[in-house]
Amino acid sequence: MDLFEAVETTGENQVGGWVRTTDGVRLWVEIRGTGRPVILLHGWTMSSLFWRRQAQLAESCQVVTIDFRGHGRSQTTPRGHNVPRYAMDVREVAFALGLNKAMLLGWSMGGSVVLDYWRQYGADRLSGLGLVETGPYPMSPAPWNVHKCRDHNEEAMHHDLAAMKTDRQGFAARFINAMFLSGQAPEHALHWMVAEQLKTDPETAAAIYADYARRDATPLLPTVSVPAMVVYGRSLHMCCGPSTGRFVAGTLPGSRFVILDRSGHMPFYEQPEEFNLTVSRFLDTLDA
């Protein structure tokens, strides 16, 4: 059987389908366009649909989106909900699709997956990487960290996870709203984003969040030797923002740092034209 099982064709050079991991989990993958691959990794309890405004990038490159296990359309499973296994899943998707010289770009928790990919595989199949609103160590006591779990605050983490399990719908709405600069998502966006958030069951959400929050990826930053792009918003109501961005960009050797100051935790969604242009310009430097 082919490593990639295509099941949907939505247009020319646009296909969706499944990749089965080495431990038997089916991951949903979508591919748009041709050219240099850009692999987009979503955040905690999100899905590949959050990258819908990056579809235009497929005019000049190949855009690949992945739903992490237990997220979006990927298979729900009780196993493997830790950052290293998610990074292994990404590597297996890249292998299944025959991707090479890719840019690996992760948002929020997805950025930690990018960094763990680097830890495990180095530059294998990569030509560059990108971090978007990524907190490389949510429990760090360092001044740059504005995450609510700052300074090893396990209580804050457990409070959030308990709130999620007690009121799944309400938690999802509050979480989505907090990602926007204004603190309020547009009604049309809130509806589908909450629906996507609810696809991740509470046990999966709790397992991967606890692993991600406790995992310190900061020592990996200075080891990156491929070109890197760092993009942050203002993120007034949620983790990250400029202080985290300045730390990450200052620690990643030779990285390109951009603040999109009319957006919160989702600069790629609130300022898609500026974000897509930033990615395109970065890709141009890789081609050069």
What gap, in angstroms, lies between the N and C termini?
38 Å
Count of the domains: 1
Q: Measured on Cα atoms, how large is the radius of gyration?
A: 17 Å
User: Would you tell me which CATH topology applies?
Assistant: Rossmann fold
Q: What can you tell me about this protein's structure?
A:
The structure is a single chain. The chain is an alpha/beta fold. It has one domain (4-287): Rossmann fold. It has helices at residues 83-97, 109-121, 154-166, 168-178, 187-197, 202-214, 242-251, 267-270, 272-287; strands at 4-11, 14-20, 26-32, 37-41, 62-66, 102-107, 126-132, 228-232, 256-259. A 9-stranded mixed beta sheet has the order 1-2-3-5-4-6-7-8-9, sandwiched between helices. Strand 8 (228-232), helix 7 (242-251) and strand 9 form a beta-alpha-beta unit. Helix 1 packs across helix 2 and helix 4 (168-178) crosses helix 5. The mean pLDDT is 96.
Please give a handful of descriptors for the protein shown.
globular, 9 helices, Rossmann fold, 288 residues, 9 strands, alpha/beta, 37% helix
Topology, pairings included?
Blueprint: E1 4-11, E2 14-20, E3 26-32, E4 37-41, E5 62-66, H1 83-97, E6 102-107, H2 109-121, E7 126-132, H3 154-166, H4 168-178, H5 187-197, H6 202-214, E8 228-232, H7 242-251, E9 256-259, H8 267-270, H9 272-287
